[in-house]
Amino acid sequence: MLLEPLDLIVFIGYCCLIVGMGLFVSREKKGHVKNSQDYFLASKALPWWAVGASLIASNISAEQFIGMSGSGFALGLAISTYEWMAAITLLVVAIFFLPVYIKKGIYTMPGFLLDRYDTRVRTTMAIFWLLLYVFVNLTSVLYLGALSLNTILNVPLGYGIAGLAVFAMIYSIYGGLKAVAWTDVVQVFFLVLGGLATTYIALQMVGEGSAWEGLGLLRQEVPGHFSMILERGEMMIPDGKGGTYDAYQDLPGISVLVGGMWITNLSYWGFNQYITQRALAAKSLDEAQKGMIFAGFLKLLMPLIVVIPGIAALVIVKNGIDTGFIQSMQDPVSGIIKSDRAYPTLLQLLPVGLKGLAFAALTAAIVSSLASMANSTSTIFTMDIYKKYIGPNASETKQVAVGRITAVVAFVIAAIVAPALGQLDQAFQFIQEYTGFISPGVFAIFFFGVFWKKTTSNAALTGAAVSIPLSVLLKWLTPELPFLDRMGVVLLVIAALMILISLVEGKGKDHPNSIEVNSELFKTSATFKIGAFIIIGITAALYIIFW
């Protein structure tokens, strides 16, 4: 299915705007040579609204538009817990972790680990993150983005992967974080506007012309898909191979509120380079914290954009509203309805003009995340690997060049690996589970590093070393244990090991590199407090309504 001329004009206009803006904001002033702070931290000049917009544009990608809509199709509103709990997590990070990072003046998360522990911990985690960004994050976003191009425009998967990689590289590799962050402001506008347009049309289709009636009909037609806290055996969902499995495996009841979901969210929003890098690039701590509040409000909105369309697609399929829609949902080889084809199929139903806008929104989400991940990969490699072991005396210009080369290499590797994800039904859950192999170790290292002065470097190194093998072992021994609960068990084991090692090794004394924290460090502005109160209130109300 091809885009109409008006849709193509809208989409091409968007592409030109992003590339042009990216190159414009990253141009070098006369007599000024781009240095590492310019390239990796956007000259530390981002205002709160750019920080918040860039956080969301970096976060919301194909894994949300395609993957989370697919999970909405399969298991319903419950998948929104990743978005709504993230809004609360952003507040925690803004209050308790950002002040520490900004006070330390770090460039990277591994750089913080060097300051708190030692070189071994920094290098170990830098390697883990590089592997994760390239083989899980970049790879999955490229695959899901190409899947949408394949479903909407019949673009072969390989060409789609290559095209998206090249588009993201055009402006991000030259301009660095400054180009990524400022174009993200525009990307978020397209992302929200185009996403809401798709939701409106999907609900209108269900409601036979009325989007408001369509929203009400969703809950009537699939009431089980509006339960936030799932019990064991409550819902069986497709496994992508013609069978089913218990949705409790993905979202294990109350654990999404008090268990492993916190490990996932804090590891992602608090200790993840391509997220925290935006806050580190803010003009000040206050601007960074306000940016977090702005991002929190956008997170509360996201399920309306990325989950509700998936539920609407289920109702369309269930009631046989559109036979062409059902055919598009089917895998062309196996004939099995694939959850992750829900959103791309919905885009085909949009009227001329809106289709171009929605396609631009999806592309905006994809390329902004790709650019962010590649930039953070290059930042970690340059600052924590290259500068330490290969070119310790490298000039600022050389560091920027190495960063650009690293980003290109990361894109090439991810593009080669991406087609292997084609066998998955819900790629979003794949990302969460395999990121979760490292998350417990990351959480323990940072949490103890900030809040327990006795944590030693060997304890942190042990936490990093055992996280993946322990997660793999537990997955093999207890396959019936939901991965969020497994993360909680792994964290408890790692925490016990780290406490034991620290007490034995340090003999009860504080570590020399321990961090001084006090109430003054965690003070926030009145604006932040008001925004935080509103976000907490809205989140509580949503869970009460949809429990």
From TrEMBL:
Per UniProt, subcellular location reads as: Membrane
Membrane topology, as annotated: Multi-pass membrane protein
Q: What is its main location?
A: membrane
Which cellular component terms (GO) are annotated to the entry? Answer: plasma membrane
Q: GO molecular function of the protein, one example? A: D-glucose:sodium symporter activity
Q: Which Gene3D superfamilies match?
A: Sodium/glucose cotransporter
Record's signal peptide: none
Where are the bilayer-spanning segments?
Answer: 6-25, 45-62, 82-102, 123-146, 152-173, 185-203, 251-271, 292-317, 357-381, 401-422, 434-452, 459-477, 483-505, 526-546
Q: Which UniProt keywords apply?
A: Membrane, Transmembrane, Transmembrane helix
User: What NCBIfam families does this protein's entry cite?
Assistant: sss
Family according to the record? Belongs to the sodium:solute symporter (SSF) (TC 2.A.21) family.
Know the name of this protein?
Answer: Sodium-dependent galactose transporter
Which species is listed as the source? Indibacter alkaliphilus (strain CCUG 57479 / KCTC 22604 / LW1)
